[in-house]
Specification:
256 residues; alpha+beta; Fructose-1,6-Bisphosphatase, Chain A, domain 1; D-Maltodextrin-Binding Protein, domain 2; eight-stranded mixed β-sheet; five-stranded mixed β-sheet; globular
Length: 256
Amino acid sequence: MMDYSAQLKTAEAAAREAGLFLKTNFYRSKEVASSSAHDLKLRLDTETQELIVARLRRDFPEYAVLGEEGSCGGDKNAPLWVIDPIDGTVNYFYGIPLYCVSIALSVNGSFVLGCVYDPMQDECFSACVGGPALLNGKAICVSARTQMRDAVVFIGHGTHDKSGSAGVARFAHLSAQVKKIRILGTAALTLCYIAAGRFDAYVENRINLWDFAAARVILEAAGGSVEYTPSDAAPHSGAIIAWNGRIPIHQALQMP
């Protein structure tokens, strides 16, 4: 198996540099670049991605980049960095200290490393495929919980995919079975929280690749499971079920 420790070291350095930039600007006024009914983009999204790309290319100039704020460089066979400069942009804009920087690397179509950095808590989650999942350098693993009644889960309910009523019904159906529902507003941190044993499952009908690519590597390295179903309608988007690999999430999702 290839050694990607050098690439992971670069990803962690880029994530921490970007995180410091975001934390420095957290309490300042923020310029909105675009806004929709349920989402928004900040000028800082673009500025942060540019900072990350510059740092990654310093060490790996031949690699390509796919980011929430655009793609660049490399040929179709080059290793591919997948970046979300601010996962949790709405939180960030509203002054809610739950957001992160997410960086993954794909080689030959498979994700081989992930780094997710939460600058407000100074928590850096990371993993290379075949290695342990780490939080600030210490190994983490998913929870040992096996019963839905003990689980803490994230359940999306369809604000983006025009299935609002069905999503709300699913939300109600699952919420009656679990200990607690928690919605952080950042998919990457949610998956990392499952990896660290804090949450037990994440269910969402629409998620973008850059939202979860890094955290997926981390969660699977921590012993969790991820099922992703790509969308036919939108590239780099699809549905996801992520869990600790132990609770009966598929059975629980069956609607009466």
